[in-house]
Amino acid sequence: MAKKKAEGYLSGREARRISKENRRITNEFEKQHKRKNVPESEYLTEMRDPNNTVEFDNLHTYFFTDAGTVKAVDGVSFEVPIGKTVGVVGESGCGKSVTSLSLMQLLQRPQGQVVEGSIRLNLGDKAYDVTKMPTEKMQHLRGNFMSMIFQEPMTSLNPVFRIGDQVDEVIALHHGEGKTKDQIKARTIELLEMVGIANSEGVYRMYPHELSGGMRQRVMIAMALACSPRLIIADEPTTALDVTIQAQVLDLLRNLKDKINSSIMFITHDLGVIAEMADYVVVMYAGRVVEKGTVEEIFHHPSHPYTIGLMASKPVVGKQVDKLYSIPGKVPNPINMPNYCYFKDRCEMCVAGCEGEYPHEVSLSPTHKVSCYRYYDNAEKGGER
């Protein structure tokens, strides 16, 4: 009797066929990225709302692996208004970081590619569609208009260069024209002081391994703010820090945002941080936005079963429970997504119709939107479908 193949098993021939097809697809995308002397008209666009810093519109970002195509971001749409903080929450692997890396064009290429949709970035006098921009033009946007505080400062800082040299390099690259070395150094020390580093002259001469986690994270924030960007992407900037340092970093980000009037896209698992920092919340699950709204709407009226599950799983001060709630089941395989609601197999609130195709977005209020069959009847009555 033939031995039954394990689930997900790929024969050598099938793996080679997938690999060849992936190379063909990614080579096409890479040709677009590597073009030279591209006219600005090709990536010029118009903001849907000029009060937004960035607009993600039906973004699809895939990873073409030898095991198949991973749909890491699968039709994400949301906005980051000027001067506001938008919190992006969801469990690991839901596409939060990939969404931000798509905006920065820092995906692991050639496997990772934006295959559909647009990301409109507001530069003030004009707007660019980042997904259509060649790599050589991105250098002018990163740092100047948008910058990112990465998740792990130890791996983001170069261990063989002093802190001062690394921050100097950012300033010299973007704003160094006509500045002397002493002027650049003075700006670096000013930035280090701005992020709450007392011994800025000493830290300027230190190597990353000589600093604590909190200090390294402050250096990363100083680098991100070096050119006063319009958008700061904070990718779990407080994950590795203890609670007191975490509170200091959050205060620091909040004050600096107001000081340079920028917007923040704050990616985190921590709902407490979101409640404190964000004006708007975007809840992601399996590469899609399942719910979005103002921080009050999401925290006081969570509507999607996944958001309700996230809220129920956080501990409450003063309430004694034998066991913390956890959402049952597991996330579907990103290579072979179901053709119905991705949360259905874990959902404890299923209604008639849940076995249909993936639910579209329903408006509960002008700012509160949810993708769930439970609200279809209300939407139809209100004519909002």
Overview of the molecule:
α9 links the parallel β8 and β9. This protein has three domains: 111 residues, no CATH class; 112 residues, 3-Layer(aba) Sandwich (Rossmann fold), CATH 3.40.50.300; 107 residues, no CATH class. 37% of the residues are buried. The protein is built from 13 helices and 13 strands. The termini are far apart. The strands form two sheets. Strands 7-8-9-4-10-11-13-12 form an eight-stranded mixed β-sheet, sandwiched between helices. Strands 1-6-5-2-3 form a five-stranded antiparallel β-sheet. The longest helix is centred in the N-terminal third of the chain and has 22 residues. The chain is 34% helix and 21% strand.
Q: How many separate domains?
A: 3
Beta strand count: 13
| H/I helix tally | 13
The strand order across the widest sheet is 7-8-9-4-10-11-13-12
Overview features:
single chain; 385 residues; alpha/beta; Rossmann fold; 8-stranded mixed sheet; 5-stranded antiparallel sheet; 13 strands; disordered C terminus
List the helices and strands and how they pair.
Elements: H1 12-33, E1 44-45, E2 52-65, E3 68-81, E4 85-89, H2 96-104, E5 112-122, E6 127-129, H3 135-141, E7 146-149, H4 153-156, H5 163-175, H6 181-194, H7 200-204, H8 213-225, E8 231-235, H9 243-260, E9 263-267, H10 271-277, E10 280-285, E11 288-294, H11 295-300, H12 305-312, E12 362-363, E13 369-370, H13 376-381
Parallel strand pairs: 4-9, 4-10, 7-8, 8-9
Antiparallel strand pairs: 1-6, 2-3, 2-5, 5-6, 10-11, 11-13, 12-13
Helix pairs in contact: 5-6, 6-8, 8-9
